[in-house]
Amino acid sequence: MSRDDLLVLVAFLIALAATLGALFIGEILGQMPCTLCWYQRIAMFPLVPILGLSTWRGDGMARLYGSPLALAGLALAGWHSGLYAGWIPQVIAPCTKDGPSCSGPSQSILGLPIPYLSLIAFVAILACLVLLKGKRK
User: Fold this and answer.
1) Which uninterrupted H or E stretch holds 54?
2) In angstroms, rounded to a whole number, what is the distance separating the alpha carbons of residues 19 and 1?
3) Which 8-state DSSP code applies to residue 59?
4) What's the mean pLDDT when you consider all of the chain?
5) Beta bridge partners of 109
6) Quick one: average pLDDT of 104-112?
7) Domains of the chain by residue range
8) Residue 112 — very low, low, confident or very high, per pLDDT cuts 50/70/90?
9) β partners of residue 112
10) Residue 94: HSE in the Cβ half-sphere, 13 Å Cα cutoff
11) Please, how many CA atoms are within 13 Å of residue 133, restricted to the half-sphere of its CB?
12) What pLDDT, on a 0 to 100 scale, did the predictor assign at position 92?
């Protein structure tokens, strides 16, 4: 297995873990995601088949197809993390007071809030894609 194949596999496993984690939180635990979480899911979920197929085929297309989604997810996760940390005023938050929220104590895994975990996942996936040498077969 080459270095590029390993990087794409790691990116795939991160995307898969994030997707399964989001589905577990929503479908098994029954916790509704907030608006920003939904948007981040829109960017994360397609990364699983894109990176999985690129891993399986070894075609080197992971960067081309995965980077735009990873960048969009990173921007959303950065915005969400900024809102969570209080760096961005709540006045411009897309979530309503009556809707689901990611700020409760039950919205953390291993002591990290869900917005931060999403940010870490997108940074790691993007780092794997950036480190690819980019040779297509």
Assistant:
1) helix 47-57
2) 25
3) -
4) 84
5) 112
6) 65
7) 3-130
8) confident
9) 109
10) 11
11) 10
12) 55
User: Where does residue 1 rank: exposed (0-12), middle (13-18), buried (19+ CB within 10 A)?
Assistant: exposed
The encoded tokens of residue 60 equal 């080197």
CATH of 3-130, one of 1.20.1550.10, 1.10.10.10, 2.60.40.1930, 3.30.70.2200: 1.20.1550.10
Asked if residues 48 and 16 have their Cβ atoms less than 8 Å apart, the reply is: yes
Contact residues for 84 (Cβ-Cβ < 8 A; gap 6+) = 102, 103, 113, 115, 116
| pTM of the predicted structure, to 2 decimals | 0.85
The long-range contacts involving 17-20, CB below 8 angstroms and separated by at least 24 positions, are: 17/121, 18/44, 18/117, 18/118, 18/121, 19/44, 19/45, 19/47, 19/48
How many CA atoms, within 13 angstroms, populate the side-chain half-sphere of residue 49?
4
Structure tokens belonging to residue 65: 């197809």
Type of residue at 71: L
User: 4, 115 in Cβ contact below 8 A?
Assistant: no
